[in-house]
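so my prof wants the structure for this chain in the tokens format not the other one, which i didnt know existed until like an hour ago. anyway here's the sequence
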Amino acid sequence: MHLFGSLLLYVFVCVLVIVVLMLKSKVGKGQQFLRFYANMAGGLALKDVVASLEQFAPLSYAEKWDNVGLLLEPYNQKPVEKIILTNDLTEAVMHEAIEKKANMILSYHPPIFAALKRITQKDWKQRIVSMCFANAIAMYSPHTAWDATLGGVNDWLASALPVKDIKPIQPLANCEDPNVGSGRVFSTNISLEKAIKAVQNHIGLDVHVAMGVEHSAATTIQKVAVCAGSGASLLRGVQADLYITGEMSHHEVLDANHQNVSVILCNHSNSERGFLKKFKPKLEDMLNGQCEVIVSEADEDPIKTHVKPKDN
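here's what i got, hopefully its the right format
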């Protein structure tokens, strides 16, 4: 009995030390304690997680053609204890989610977009759906609701540069918040060369650059238009010195250049994926630390740049 009492005292002291260290930490402080305590609990109901996600980015913000929100709800859904964030739900990410025992996947791009008439093992999207059901994993996609919302993907991409007087390129109709809408346009004061390096540092990857016909590396950029993903249709005709987006066609780039607009292309998902790391702690706070949130390590842009080796 004396040994048991000593063991309890030892466990109590260990827990107390951990709590004190968390409270002394410069990052999170009280939030760290809440997460530590809450992780000992049983997670949150799926409906509560979904409500928090829709509070951050209401589904009404999404484009009409998009397929957003809760896309898959297993019959035997348990409380959500672990959420994995991914830009694209590929089979590699799906296996990662199962291996890490996630019971909810938040995929920026909707894995289910076109109608599925059957769920078999014949193609990768059907296999993903079947694996979600088999492992009781819920699936949620915010896509263009995240693009439009304040503090979402486009605001994150714009923050690569010094930002002043930022606003949506196309404000959301019938929305009281003027900061909500498609794309972003803002003022800045930076050379094109420094802007390119800033975007590279922001996304952590190489970029493709097409300079305006009268531009050079030293050109001062004063107006920037941003659209994460595929931005050609939204950016077309926008008055700016620089466009930043994921992808545009060859002829769309040429047209922008001949209007003396330089273009930085990041590759489609590379212009979006970095937002997940920023959103992770925000989501943890939104859920009061009651769910563990992780960012997928298997998620990546399918297009890789292969640098031509120097001739021997």
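also thought this was worth mentioning. The radius of gyration is 23 Å.
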